[in-house]
Amino acid sequence: MAERPPSRPRVAWEENRAPQESSSPPEPHEVCVPKPLQIGAPSAASSWLALYRKEKESMQFIQVFLKSSEKETAQKMRFLETICTLCKAARCKGLSRGLNAFCHKFELAENIKALLEEEPRDHLQTAVRQQAMLAIAALSKVEMVLEGKKKSLLEACFKSVFLLPPKTDMQGLDTTLYFETLDAMDTMLRTLVLSSSASGFTELQTILQMLLTFTNCQSAVVCERAVGRIGRLSDLLASCSSVEVWSIFVGDDASPACHTEIHMPVLGQLLGHLILCRTCKSWEISWVALDALHHLFRFILQQKCTTLPEDNAEHPQRQREQEAAITSWLSLPSTSNTTMAFGKYLQPSERTDIVLVAIEAMRDSSIYDKEEASSILDVAVREPASWLTEVPNIMRCIYENMEHVHTASARHSLDRLLLLMTDQCPMEVVTSLLKLSPSCDSAALAMWDVMLSQPHTLEKVLRELLSKLQDQQLRRVFSSNTEDACIHHLALLASSDIKPEEFAGLYKVHRYLRRPSLALLSLVLRGLVTLSQRPETARKMLVLLPDIMETQQNANSGNKMKALLVFRNVIGHMKRKEASPTALQLVDKLPPLFDDQSSQLRELSICLFRDVMQTVVGNDKQQMRKNVRRSLLPLFFHMSDQSESVAKASQEALLVAAKLLKWKQLKRLTQTQQTGRIGECLLVQDRSRVEEYLSQSLPYLKDAQVTLREAAVRFIGLAARHLRDKSEEKLSEICNALQLLEKDAELSVSSLAAETMLTLRSPTEQPPSGWTLWALCCWPCKAGQK
Question: Does residue 129 fall inside a structural domain?
Answer without folding.
Answer: yes
